Amino acid sequence: MLAQISVLSVLTATILVASANSAIQEETTITGKVKVTAICIGTGGDYDTKMAQATEYLQIAGDNNVDVACLPEEFASSEPEPIPGRTTDAIAKLAKQYNMYIICPICELAGDRKYNTAVLIDRHGDVAGYYRKVFVFWGENVNLSDDGVKIFDTDFGRISILTCFDLNFAELWHEADAKGAEIVFWPSAYGGGMPLNAFAMLYHYYIVPVGWGNIIDVTGENMKDVINPKEKIFIATLDTDRTFIHENFTGEKVTKLLQDHKGEVVMEHHYEMEAWWLLKSVKPGVSVRKLCKEYGIETLREYQHRSREQINEIRKAGGKV
Prior knowledge:
The chain is an alpha/beta fold. Helices cover 34% and strands 26% of the residues.
């Protein structure tokens, strides 16, 4: 019995250290304010017309100093093309001109295979990565991705991309959370609605739907401070430093943090039934995430992920919690 307890103690300590290191690595990309835009010009159509429309809207985004713009699913055409190709080349020029990331969804031609693919182009106009749709809608006549959910580390934080019919499969949204996504972009041919709001609240990341433009807060609510400089374009500033914390094991630490940094950090909301706090910085240059590290406070995401890992490992060892 003593040997079993000893093994479990060592195992638990090891997991705590590993989880803490993982959590620290996960949070290193957080920088704070990010300006995003959803360009909701619909799927397909006449190629030249849609490219001209996309160019106009991306110029508006650039003039508004957007960090990342997202176009809809296969926004210009369903005709397959390679990466790089005519569409990504044209969009890349705008990304470089306006110093912004652009998510450019196309029908990708890869050898003898076709994919519904969202291409991430960086501020320099280079292809930074791509996401191939995992759950293809009936009748699309494209191949199914085996790549799964991807994470992209940008200069403003960690993002993921899911596409249209992917909405219906919760494991993809869970994987985006497990991999540390702060923002999930969702290029689509339709609006999506309530499931998107539910995933945003459950996993505490922003969701940028590019169907109808209802940009969703980490609270699961549609954001109200959305700029609409022209029909079909929606711009919002996201604060990825806002932090959920569970009440478990953190009360005294959170109280001290708020006392020590009065006027710099505030409790935006206390969710009593959920036992969550939502903290945010109200002073430029002050980061809630960094202060949580300093005060030894786990974020809600870190707490959930660590608990899952530790409890499952103890389960394997036949122990008790």
